[in-house]
Amino acid sequence: MIEYVSARYPDVMLYCRTVVETGDYVTTGVTTYAEGDLVEIELPEYERFALKENVKVSVYSPVGLLVFRSTVIAIAEGSIVVLGSPQIASRFGEVRQYPRVTVSAPATLYNEGETDHALDITVENISLNGVGFKVYAEVNLSRTCMLDLTLGDQLRVRCPIEIVRKEEKDTHWFYGARITTLPADVSQSLRAFVLRRQVDVYYEHKKAELRKKNQQM
What we know:
- By secondary structure, this protein is an alpha+beta fold.
- The chain has helices at 86-91, 184-216; strands spanning 17-21, 26-35, 38-42, 54-61, 64-76, 79-83, 101-111, 118-126, 130-135, 144-151, 155-168, 173-179.
- The chain has two domains: 4-91, Thrombin, subunit H (Beta Barrel); 101-190, Beta Barrel (Thrombin, subunit H), CATH 2.40.10.220.
- 18% of the residues lie in helices and 47% in strands.
């Protein structure tokens, strides 16, 4: 039993009886995965659901009934994945407003006011409001810089960032930065990219579980 005073997200969601409702259908399953924006619900009637279908989710957690409206964003053998509730996550201790995903992508950084002096970096993770990157040489970076990053084939993220953390590693320096402004169209595209990456990670997780299960048979 999870004690209310120490309940944390995603523990309050995991392995709980969960009711999923559509306009004309109700079924019961169990939550088995909650990371970032995603919540997985295992249920026998998973084939009754469709991608982008709107649903109501009721989680019978030890801390009480947790209810939120959501959308089906992935379907796997024996389960569906819905968008989680930021309100529930923040209520139970999730401090990050936006999920961060691993990318490992080359990018360019410019000190404030020095657009002719580029620094090659490697972006390790990104969210809608932050970025983490590696630098393989000690350099003097201004607190505010301009990031120029391409994700995938089409998404270009060019925006100012504010460095908030610097950490020395064995082979490089790691920086954490806050994205200060982002155009609305880029924000929307980045949001879609982050969500797709989370779904990719989920399917990788499911494949790993299947391999482990087959090895134990």
